[in-house]
Write a structure and sequence with these properties.
Shape: globular
Number of helices: 9
Strand content: 25-35%
Bound molecules: adenosine-5'-diphosphate, magnesium ion
Distance between the termini: 37 Å
Radius of gyration: 20 Å
Largest sheet: 6 strands, mixed
Structural class: alpha+beta
Number of strands: 12
Length: 303
């Protein structure tokens, strides 16, 4: 199979959004963003052996390469629309490509996202997706506007993806994280800051604190743990929730006056208040007895 037959067979979808004027097949794609909106543009690379283990099923690789990008759009409050895919493959393996593209399109179809272009090259396995979405001008959520007194929330449960790294029986969340697109859109009018949790709660919340020039107090007794994590020793579960990455839940801040607006969205995935933004810089984590938490509290860093 050559580059062009791979693209035609696995990636050239016939069904495109109506705002795509020209998809795969020319030198660039053409799209028409809705009037009055800003584009939100993000990209993430998954490298074999670094971001996923060699044994990861190709369906999960396809799904997750898109999920991590949609998660970044969710954290901005953006509606996802278009993606490009730069794929570097050691060899054109039909079974691998079939499963990979099925995983990718499963999530793309769920959020009505169109694949509009990309690049296909030979080399060590790596996947780069660029995702483009939009928000009404002035309504994107950044990391930088949390203020003292805001409540800190997270979506879903934390630590399950981290558990999956060491426990093959619990790989669902590691392989198939759910980008919290619906929450991102709901929070446009409510949240002062948001981030998606890719490197662990402690590290990612710290990014909000640094960008917003504030601090935070959180309490480990409020951290949402799945029924699986609740069966682990408490310290181990909390450590996973605070420091392991790959959950792709959202962490966001809400002024007290806007907390009631969250009730309108109680049909979306559950959210939990875990603490409060403070004026004093730094993240303070206390346990159920009020003692400061001393875990290995830093997220994954490449360098
Ligand atoms: P060019 O040489 O002009 O950069 P290419 O030959 O690389 O174009 O690609 C041909 C067309 O196929 C382009 O429209 C490109 O965006 C698209 N394309 C290439 N690889 C992929 C891929 N993996 N997924 C989706 N579209 C792709
Ligand atoms: Mg090219």
């Amino acid at each position: 199979m050559n580059e062009f037959s791979i693209i035609k067979r696995f990636f050239a979808s016939t069904h495109l959004r109506s705002d795509v004027n020209l998809g795969i097949g020319d030198d660039a794609a053409l799209v028409t963003p809705p009037p009055g909106h800003s584009l939100a543009i993000t990209t993430d690379t998954l490298v074999a052996g670094v971001h996923f283990a060699a044994e990861t099923p190709p369906h999960a690789i396809g799904y997750k390469s898109l999920a991590v990008n949609l998660s970044d759009l969710a954290a901005m409050g953006a509606t996802p629309a278009w993606i490009t895919l730069a794929l570097t493959l050691p060899e054109p393996n039909v079974a691998w490509l079939e499963a990979f593209s099925a995983g990718l399109f499963q999530l793309a179809e769920k959020y009505q996202v169109s694949l509009i272009g990309g690049d296909t090259t030979r080399g060590p396995l790596a996947i780069t997706i660029q995702a483009i979405g939009f928000t009404p001008i002035g309504y994107a959520i950044t990391r930088g506007k949390a203020v003292p007194g805001d409540a800190i929330f997270v979506t879903g449960c934390l630590g399950d993806a981290g558990l999956g790294l060491s426990t093959p029986a619990h790989r669902d969340k590691l392989y198939y994280p759910e980008p919290r697109i619906d929450w991102g859109i709901a929070l446009r009018d409510i949240a002062t800051a948001a981030i998606d949790i890719s490197d662990g709660l402690a590290a990612d919340l710290t990014h909000i604190l640094n960008s917003s020039h504030v601090g935070a107090n959180i309490n480990t007794s409020f951290i949402p743990l799945s029924s699986t994590l609740q069966t682990l020793p408490r310290d181990k579960a909390i450590d996973l929730a605070l420091t392991s990455g790959d959950d792709y839940e959202l962490c966001f801040t809400v002024p007290a006056a806007k907390k009631a607006l969250l009730d309108e969205y109680n049909k979306l995935s559950p959210i939990t208040c875990i603490g409060e933004i403070t004026a004093t810089p730094g993240l303070i984590i206390v346990d159920e007895d009020g003692n400061e938490w001393h875990g290995k509290s830093s997220g994954y860093q490449h360098f």
